[in-house]
Amino acid sequence: MTAHVIPSFSQAGGEIRRPAVAGRFYPADPDTLRSEVNRYLSEAGTDSISSVRAIIVPHAGYVFSGATASKAYACIAPSAHYRRVFLLGPSHRAAFDGASVNGVSPAYATPLGEVKVDQETCERLAHSDDVFCYLPQAHQKEHCLEVQLPFLQQRLQSVPPIVPVIVGTQRIEKLERVAQALLPYFTSENLFVISSDFSHYPPYADACKADKATGDAILSASVEKFMRAIAGNSSHGYQNLLTSACGQAPIAVLLLMMQQTPGLQMKHLGYCNSGDSPYGGRDEVVGYHAFAVSEGGGGKTFRHVSDTFSLRAAEKAELLRIARKSIENELEGKMELPYDSARLTDTLKMNCGAFVTLHLNGKLRGCIGMLAGRRPLYLTVSDMARAAAFEDARFRPVTLEEMKDVRIDISVLSPLRKIHSVEEFELGKHGIFMVKDARSGTFLPQVAEETHWTKEEFLGHCARDKAGIGWNGWRSAELYVYEAEVFDEGGGE
After folding, report:
1. Which residues, including other chains, have CB under 8 Å from residue 209's CB and lie 6 or more apart?
2. Please, what sign has the CA dihedral across residues 105, 108, 179, 482?
């Protein structure tokens, strides 16, 4: 990827992004386009779903995928009010190892009019992590986001500004960073539109089989199952299967965010492939799914771990050993793994959030954590231990000499649970996670015992010192609680 300095988008003076595929993927005539989209929406046969947070929709020519795409848009109430729409799609035009945010264009035009770009949010997102860039050629001729706009224009009574993101990387560690940067925006006030077609070019029957495997994995809301389904399809030997999902990367970003957001449900809305269209043959087809993610209604809810999750003493000891060995290996330049696969139980392989805290002579020496489970617990602990030792910006890196006196604490976290009243929060039992205006912060449950704060002080310090939303910001923030199983090398619970 050629590096591009990210401009100040609001002052960049860019031109409106003009349609690139009008007249090819969809009608260029406004009246014809309006009529065609309205017909698809009226024939969708999909009931509105309350609190739609995200949809997965195809991006082929409307004659092939418009009927399936409309099932996703029809589930959104026309009166739904969103602050902004995040459009995430794959790159068909440029190869690069990151995600490109187009905040240079002040608006995207279609035959139905212009849709404003939220340049301020684009700029804030682009500067949040260097995984983001601005690559003009990733946007100029790209169709995957453009074809979504007429549906938004015809379905919503009020179309909010958009944040256009083209995801070029396939590397999971970079997709995790993209998801982490987007997570504060993944709230009820925003809509995420994930643009993806599915199987490319197998025969009709094989496409149906491969797309069912991929669709079932997405319905589970597990990024691990999704990746396994992609790999399984690839190794199955389906004739002429080029990919199972061209939007694999943005779908993975959505699933990663879902795994950190409790209470969401995935619903499958429809499937077809190009062989179902009178304009397509059946020898080489492309598949199209439609899904919706919502806060309620029918669908499948993803849980990180069971409500009865607990660790045995031997498992706690193994996690503490992994944490220490991970730091020591780094300090000693050893390339060996810090864990022994034979000692890993099924519980240690569950996806869990965890924090690792280092103390030296009774004082904090580092603390880094992952709030919700995206990786197996043993890997999370290994990663967070190294991060606490070497990446906590409040402290200089831990030295090998210090390690003999460092005490390691581990907090394994339960799934997040959204609360609707601060009365549901129990000081000393619950940790708090708060989100407001794309800012977030958390305190572990044990902070209450360490500080002896009142409930209001606990919330106020978290809001001001962690989330940066002011002392009383918690009163209008989205609040989540969680519990932590805490243990240390002294055998303390």
Report:
1. 238
2. positive
Q: Within its chain, how far is the Cα of 239 from the centroid?
A: 32
- From 212, 431, 408, select the one nearest 318 (Cα to Cα): 408
- Look up residue 160 and give its two tokens: 């909010």
The counts of H helices and E strands in the chain are: 13, 19
160 CA to centre of own chain: 21
pLDDT in tens, 181-212: 999 999 999 999 999 999 999 999 999 999 99
Rounded Cα gap, residues 315 and 347, in angstroms: 8
CA gap 8, 194 in Å, rounded: 26
How far is the C-alpha of 213 from the C-alpha of 232, rounded, in Å? 9
The span from the CA of 289 to the CA of 69, in Å, is 8
CB proximity list for 177: less than 8 A, separation 6 or greater: 129, 131
Residue 77 near residue 311, CB atoms below 8 Å: no
pTM here is 0.66
Helix (H, G, I), strand (E, B) or coil at 395: coil
Helix, strand, coil percentages for the chain (3-state, nearest 5): 35, 25, 40
Report the interhelical angle of 313-332 vs 377-390 (nearest 10°).
Answer: 40
- Give the CA distances from residue 238 to residues 95, 244, 275, 438, in Å, rounded to whole numbers and listed in that order: 26, 10, 16, 43
One-letter amino acid of 289: H
User: Does residue 38 sit in helix, strand or coil?
Assistant: helix
HSE-CB of 125 using CA atoms within 13 angstroms:
31
Strand, helix or coil for residue 199? coil
Q: Which secondary structure element, helix H or strand E, spans residue 409, and what is its range?
A: strand 406-413
- In this predicted model, what pLDDT tens digit does every residue of 361-398 receive, in sequence order? 999 999 998 876 667 899 999 999 999 999 999 999 99
pLDDT 10s digits, 438-489: 788 899 898 998 899 999 999 999 999 999 999 999 999 999 888 888 899 9
CA–CA separation, 100 vs 134, rounded Å? 5
Name the DSSP letter for residue 453: -
Contact residues for 240 (Cβ-Cβ < 8 A; gap 6+) = 201, 202, 203, 284
Compute, in degrees rounded to 10, the torsion defined by CA atoms 65, 68, 69, 72: -170
Asked if residue 139 lies in contact with residue 102, where contact means CB atoms within 8 angstroms, the answer is yes
Strands 439-443 and 406-413 come out as unpaired
Q: How far is CA 352 from the centre of its chain?
A: 16
Pairing of strands 99-101, 162-167: antiparallel
pLDDT of amino acid 307: 42
**Which pair of structure tokens corresponds to residue 189?**
């006030």
| DSSP states of 207-266 | HHHHHHHHHHHHHTT-HHHHHHHHHHHHHHT-TT---S-TTHHHHHHHHHHHTTSTT-EE
Structure tokens at 84: 């902004």
